[in-house]
């Protein structure tokens, strides 16, 4: 048995950078809903280079999935999408649907949270793994089968020659996710989009999948966009982090900078609210209220109703721009905290919003919460 | 802290019949004591039997063998009628507050239900007062009583679930993943609330969760489950400093930490293989198919729980030693596939 102790996924040198594989610019997605238009994504821009991992983090409904779906032309029909998206130098938004599907199929692999949404229960995994590529790469059945065995081996499925003829239900959850990753990699895509690929898995299985993707990225030079709400996973896999809140990027930068010196009050508050090892029993610095609904976003800063810094009326009425606070590190707030400690205001001492006066808080998206929660619990 | 036992589980098994095959051994020989005023954390692989253990405490699933005592009384054979009384003394908070509340009922009616069932507040008026009091306890305004679940945020719904659990003034509350479905920025609010309630009301919790940071934060003791068994128990400090069972060591090493510098220098114990089927657990030690330290006799002997330090027990034939050996192993080469 090989030694089970392995170094962290990123050990072994920085991966190469280069021209972006995917670059999105000013992406906005508005969804038509029963209750009116919902602005799910607004003015999002980022790019990811070969061999690099961009982590998109944020809470439920913050627009993470919609960003990558809209960017790759997979948004629901009810969506209005504006902005520009370049995949390997080609503009996707102006392509015909057929061209876009082909371009995407060749160059992008997808892994979603639930492997069964991707897998067909009645086909063998071998057939499914290479199905897309037979078309794209013009493979024969025999070639496809031996390629499937190769791919199952690549993603760490034991006895792949035998397992290639098995059906999805004969695999465990973690193994199914490996099959989906094999499928996503079949056409040797330049970009892998993983939307919460480990959320449904155990931590021990999650560690296996994180390890696997990091290793594949290193060996194949694939660019990775990894969506998660787990800050621990982000810390382990990302080169760059984009934090989303209320459909917008509120902070983006190199992973070390974002964790060590978060510049946006939301990022700071989120990191400060985590239970810390060795500090059991202490009151956590909870963030008051709840995230906004895309049906009812505040006019100014989306975090305003919950923000412990909350400078002035400007926050409530004006959208703060994304401003650089260090090379490659941007935040969307009027009151950023800078790495050298030049804090405009320090929300970590603000005791999770206990200082925010609830009686003066006017509605915003969390009016409901303000109305129903007692001050000390917000 | 008092050491009186609020609930004791003694050699519990819960087997579910599965059509045309051997039964699912969801819980397979679990002994646990929950002491008054403490939080006992229950963690472990998905499917290891945590929820089933919690449900058995309320007798919401029937034990196949073994005994369950609540407040010193053996409730294993209690009739349906007497069980109603049990469910006042042991309450449960579920993962998904959306699913555990009746969408057609007002929040007030949902919270009042246990009061009616257990005849705890005589008049309608007394009931209304008690509901308002409970809402206040969980940090909701009295007007919330007139609302329906869909009008509330996820965090508010979970507060309602907690108020409902508090209604009967239970001796023990089983919290089954109470923050897992909540928004990231709302989880700390609920953890704070649970802690405050425990402090103010002297509550006892069995806290089932995947989020080990949250479990460490809230628990006085932790029990680790694997495939229907408890493999290790101890205080958070004992487990984090010196896990004695290889599964605990692997589990702890797999938890991602929200600090890139820590993550970069970390060496993980990556388990190979998958959780075996609970219909056919491995002979001897159940963890042996994935244990990096498995030896021949691990397939022969079912390891009993041994005390490795006061209050710290592990069910491993090489308790302590196996983990030290795992941690001393040289790191695997950086290149190469996942195995
Ligand atoms: N098909 C759809 N029709 C209407 N609204 C939608 C649809 N899909 C998503 N939305 C809404 O768009 C917003 C952004 O959703 P999105 O799925 O991108 O969030 P997310 O950040 O991925 O959240 P999660 O962590 O829950 O997956 C949400 O408010 C969601 O309710
Ligand atoms: N009513 C049931 N009928 C048949 N099998 C069941 C039933 N309830 C649970 N099981 C099985 O019993 C085992 C233990 O399930 P349980 O829900 O207790 O696990 P758990 O530790 O709570 O897992 P998770 O972390 O995923 O919630 C699993 O294999 C599960 O599939
Ligand atoms: S813009 Fe104002 S309200 Fe928004 S995060 Fe910055 S300080 Fe807070
Ligand atoms: S008894 Fe053997 S197989 Fe089981 S955990 Fe201990 S060393 Fe590993
Ligand atoms: Mg999503
Ligand atoms: Mg469970």
UniProtKB/TrEMBL annotation, chain A:
A GO cellular-component term linked to this record: plasma membrane
Q: Where is this region: Disordered?
A: 1-20, 334-378
- Bias regions of kind Basic and acidic residues — which residues? 367-378
User: What kind of membrane protein is this, topologically?
Assistant: Peripheral membrane protein
Give start-end positions of Low complexity composition bias: 336-366
Where found, per UniProt? Cell membrane
Entry's Pfam families?
Answer: ABC_tran, oligo_HPY
The record's keywords, sorted A to Z, are: ATP-binding, Cell membrane, Membrane, Nucleotide-binding, Transport
Q: Provide the leader sequence positions.
A: none
The GO molecular function terms of this record are: ATP binding; ATP hydrolysis activity
The UniProt family comment states: Belongs to the ABC transporter superfamily.
Per its record, how is this protein called by name? Peptide/nickel transport system ATP-binding protein
Naturally occurring in which organism (per UniProt): Micromonospora matsumotoense
TrEMBL record, chain B:
GO BP, sorted A to Z: peptide transport; transmembrane transport
A single Gene Ontology molecular function, please?
ATP binding
* Keyword line: ATP-binding, Nucleotide-binding, Transport
ABC transporter domain sequence ranges:
7-252
Entry-linked InterPro entries: AAA+_ATPase (IPR003593), ABC_transp_ATP-bind (IPR050319), ABC_transporter-like_ATP-bd (IPR003439), ABC_transporter-like_CS (IPR017871), Oligopep_ABC_C (IPR013563), P-loop_NTPase (IPR027417)
- From what superkingdom does this record's organism come? Bacteria
Cited Pfam families: ABC_tran (PF00005), oligo_HPY (PF08352)
Keyword Heme part of the UniProt annotation? no
The UniProt entry's sequence similarity note says:
Belongs to the ABC transporter superfamily.
Q: What's the protein here called?
A: Peptide/nickel transport system ATP-binding protein
What is the taxonomic lineage of the source species? Bacteria, Bacillati, Actinomycetota, Actinomycetes, Micromonosporales
